[in-house]
Amino acid sequence: MVKQITENPHGQFTTEDYTVFVVMLTVSAAIGIYFGFFEGKKNKTTEEYLLGGRRMKVFPIAVSLIASQLSGVSIMSVPAEMYSYGAQYWIIAPTMIVIVMIINYIFVPVFYNNQITNCYQYLEDRFSPAVKKFVTFTYVLNIYLILPIFIFIPSLAFAQVTGTNIHLINGIVCCVCIFYTMLGGIKAVVWTDVVQGVIMFASCFLVVAVGVVKIGGFGEVFTRAAAGDRLNIFDMTFDATTRQTFWTSSIGNVFLWTGYLGLNQSCVQRMVAVPSVRHARTALWIFCAGFIIITSLNCFTGIVIFAKYFDCDPIKVNLVQKADKLLPFYVQDVVGNLKGMPGVFISCVFSAGLSTMSANLNSLAGIIYEDNIRPFKLFKHADASANLTMKMLILFSGLYCIVMGLVVEQFGHILQMVVTIASVTQGAVMGIFCLGMLWPWANKHGALWGSAASVIGMSWIIAGAQFAIKNGDLSYPPKPTSVEGCAEYGFNVTQSVLGQSTAVTDDSSGGFSIYKMSFVWYSTVGTFLVFLVGIPVSYLTGSQDLSKMHAKLISPVVHRWLPKEITKSELVLKTSGVNPEDVQIKEWVFTPAEEEKRKKLRDTNEHVM
């Protein structure tokens, strides 16, 4: 191992590597320039800037969803998860089939039937403006907390293999992302995602393939992984405090990812950028297939890393400071002697981070402008002024991410931190949309109190868990690793270090505590809190009068329980002789007739007790 590392020592990022990395950034910037200047006439309206005129193609949208959802956090931290805790996390890959089914048949029809472009507008139509404002605030807060992490992780990888100052490269890459997102809008975001998605897949495949060959083939990889207890994916333990089991990886991730993918504005914005429901569903199924492939490849990368260092843990001999830095170390070690390969890997990680950051910057600007700036009428609304304002918001948000890199640098395990931050509000968002679409009797009071209870309850639980971690009362010890083979690589390993590699602490002696609950369950608990509070409050304050309910605000899967006169008289998006799934949404703003219906609906919801 020492010999391999010294062939490409720390800080020796070659000219070929820098060339590959610069080409990736240049192509991303060029796409922004193209859509900002050469396609500028087609990108002047708000609809074009945020939705691409609703004429986006299915495949680019699907690839964009894959690239933006598999962030730099996934590329770096999932292999670290596999290395430290085993393959249980992989269950999320096949679980995505269930998640996409839920989104396609519960949420997507409602968004299209109500001509939703801002997913939080649904909450105003279904409940009240107050509910929308509350949930929108939690979304904006959550994005500002989590977005700096997504772009900082690639900088971490770059610093690991080059020795460059981590904050310098973080600032440079953020500026490139800000540039093309500001100029090109959603079209630039989607097409850079396509380029970056191809880079991600190619680099992940190459890194794994070279590693498997050097280890001695798939058989040797799986033999070593099995000996190290890294292949158990069916841990059926019914213990909510266990970090990862089959149940947390499947059920827990259904709630987490359904909300993150189906009810996140950056994703919904792209779902409704295609012409019809059928196109949106097709895009999501393509996304599902791509997600399974990339996630499986990413998980297998962690298994390959463990097989490579099965008898000499780089963390124990201080070659790597923490598990999240294992992947760049492995790339430097295994393919560092292949010119350009470290550059391809770094481009992969940055592509993932840029995709996530650009998608969120674009949707965040639209949300803040529509909900927090436009209503105050600080200036006359026009497409030009709206687009300029959103570009300034993107600039501000990007600069904020650069500054917050100083804070993110102090974080511990990145994957756990991301899920924890997201779960403060993710459960509330998932719960309130499900309450509105699946429980027709829920009213605005139940929705508001249910979502508030979820956010407060999860904040309390998560804060308690963080205090427990700080005090040493809660920990997730990794699976044992070995340093027995380190001596032959030139390391003088003492017996005490070997003992540390197998030490596992047991924090379960004190019995169950809600603070010791696995962080993967946070979104599930948050969702159920909305229902546990929202349904009783709705009944106590007067359930929604179904005779005054618009059926299109309720998911089609529960229409059978609505009064027949409501479903029969409901105005839905239908065209004579045309499949409803092929009907296109043609307007960015609602027609006068539709706006009148929406006004009556809001008035009805405001006066129903």
TrEMBL record:
The chain crosses the membrane at residues 18-37, 58-77, 89-113, 134-159, 165-183, 190-213, 245-263, 284-307, 344-369, 390-408, 414-439, 446-469, 519-540. This is Sodium/solute symporter. PANTHER family: FI02923P-RELATED (PTHR42985:SF46), SODIUM-COUPLED MONOCARBOXYLATE TRANSPORTER (PTHR42985). The keyword Thylakoid does not apply. Its main location: membrane. PROSITE patterns: NA_SOLUT_SYMP_3 (PS50283). Belongs to the sodium:solute symporter (SSF) (TC 2.A.21) family. It is a multi-pass membrane protein. It comes from the Eukaryota.
